[in-house]
Amino acid sequence: MSLARRKKINTIFHVILVACILFSLIVLIILFTDILKKGFPFLNIDFLTKYSSRFPKKSGIRAGLFGSLWIIITTVIIAFPLGVSGAIYLEEYAPKNRFTSLIKINISNLAGVPSIVYGILGLSLFVRTLKFGRTILSASLTMALLILPIIIVSSQEALKTVPKDLKEASYGLGATKWETITGVILPYSMPGILTGTILAISRAIGEAAPLVVVGGAAAIWFTPKGLMDEFTTLPLQIFTWASKPQADFQLVAAAGITVLLLVLIFINLTAILLRNKYQDRMKM
Asked: InterPro entries recorded for this chain (predicted)?
């Protein structure tokens, strides 16, 4: 294939890619505008502080909001150290053989498993076998299993970006392997690790299917205070409202979607600030 033909094909692909991105952005803007327009009349302090009700105008999202925060924070606390530790072991300690390659392939495959499968696993393992019940702890452990492969794979890719010269310089100065990992490899790769964690959290916070299987309630009328409490989440409450026949509940669901998007944006901004902090530290 001639060079001119390759350039022409690359140009066509770039044009198609840009067109797809612009189309996706336009669709997202239209959807978000429509949701905000429908849900804005319900967005007030009462909506955030009240519990669900059979009357649309009296419905609130407090239980779902606190339930989602409990589950997401607990999930990250469980999955983040396990995922990063697993990636460090696979990249820095595990022998390079067929067995290790098989493990890496299986972890990559697990990242694409439907979330409902993790819900069934969580129901069998955490709810019934370990007898944690239909609680926040069971839901958090299930969601940790869901995002763990994503964190491991993204952390592995981030660890691979560390220049070999930096590692050799650390060893040359007399640092041990562990000191090199904690002092050189992890700080250099942390922006990439946090980027993968952001993607994992973004997937987890919008999931409803595994939580339904684990035993998330359609609505509760109390604020969870511990890991062994029952729970509902924003996606579960939104699904419940959207499935009701009354037209006003569709507007309440739109308001819930807006709150869910704002929570997701806040969590992502926090992770992005942490990532940028590590990037700035590496530049110094």
From this structure: MetI-like, MetI-like_sf, Phosphate_PstA
**What is the pTM assigned to this prediction?**
0.84
The domain spanning residue 224 has which CATH number? 1.10.3720.10
* Residue with token string 């949701």: 35
Residue linked to tokens 């955490």: 126
Does residue 19 lie in a domain region? no
Higher pLDDT, 124 or 4: 124
Among candidates 129, 161, 159, 155, which has minimal Cα distance to 142?
129
Task: Please name the residue that has the structure tokens 């035993």.
Answer: 215
Confidence of residue 163 (pLDDT cuts 50, 70, 90): confident
The Cα–Cα gap between 163 and 126 comes to 41
Residues 6+ apart with CB under 8 A from 40: 255, 258
Assign 3-state DSSP to the chain and report helix, strand, coil percentages, each to 5.
80, 0, 20
Query: What range does the domain containing 194 cover?
Result: 45-283
Distance CA 27, CA 31 (A): 6
For 85-107, what is each residue's pLDDT tens digit? 999 999 888 888 888 888 888 88
